User: What shape does this take?
Amino acid sequence: MITLLVGDNSFEIERYVDNLKLDFKGDPEIINGNELQFAQLPDVLMGVSLFATERLVIVKNLCENKSVWPIFGDWLHNVSSDIHLVIVEPKPDKRTSTFKSLKKHAIVKDFKLWGERDIPAAERWVVLESKKLGFDLDKKNVQLLVQRVGVDQWQLYNAIDKLSLVDEISDEVIRDVIEANPIENVFDLLNAALRGDIARLKLILQTLEHSEDVYRLSGLLFSQVFQLAAVVSATKSDNVSKDFSIHPYAVSKLEPIAKRLGKSGLSDVVSIFAEADDNMKSSRVDPWLLLEHALTKVANI
Assistant: This one.
C-alpha cells in the first residue's frame, strides 16, 4: 500500500502521520528522503523484516533528492504487499514522471491550509479539540478565539492548549492569555483611526513596528477597508458575510463603525488609503511614516 501526503497544512499532515504510527503495531521506519541512496531502494521498498510481518515506512522530502526522485516512480510496482509506504511531499513537482506514477499507484491525500472561507470549519475544529483537552468553549468564546488567533491550526492548537490550563474561561481571559494575530491588531489600528484616537493608533503602530512587516500589515489594513466598504454599501437584502466571504463575527464588529462612518465618510477613507497604497509603491519615504500619515488623516476626518 502506498500513500502520498501533499499540501501546505503541516499540522494536518503531522497529525495524520502520528495517527498512522499509533495504529501501527510495531516500530515505524522514518527515512529522510533527501539522504536516501539508490542502492537502498530494494531494502526500503521490498525488504522483509525478520521481526515483523508488516512494515510502516515513512519517507519525507524525497522530492529534494535529485538522484533518486527522477527514477523513484519506476520502482513503485516493486513495493512489497506487506509494506505501507508513506511519501510525505508538501510541494512535489507535479510535472515529473515520479509524481504522475505516484498518482496512479498511491492513495493521494491533499492537506490544504485553511483560509478565511474556512473560519466555520476552524470554529467546529476548536470545539472538538477543546473537548479532547477536557473543557468546553461556548459559541462566543470560540468566535473570539478564532478571530483573535486566525485559522492557522498550529497557532489555534497552542491557544487551546493554553486555555486548557485556565480554571474559568471568559472573553476577558481569552484576550489576556491569547496574543492577538495581525488581523486583530489591524482591526484595532483601523478602529482607533476611525474613532480619532491618534494617541492609541500611534501606540499600536509603535508596537507593530517591532514585530510586523509593514507591507504585509498594509495589505491586511487595505483588506480590512475593503470589508468595511462592503458592510457600508450593503442593503438590507444583502448577505454581506456570504456574498463577500466575511466572517459573521467580523461583520458584527464592522457594523457599528459602518453606521458611524456612512457612505460619504467611507469615500474619504478609501481615497486616503488608495493614495497611501500608491505612495508605498512609488515613494522612497519610510513606509511606516506613510502608513502613519494615512491613518492620521483618517483620524482627522
Remarks:
- Residues 116-177 form a domain with the Helicase, Ruva Protein; domain 3 fold (CATH 1.10.8).
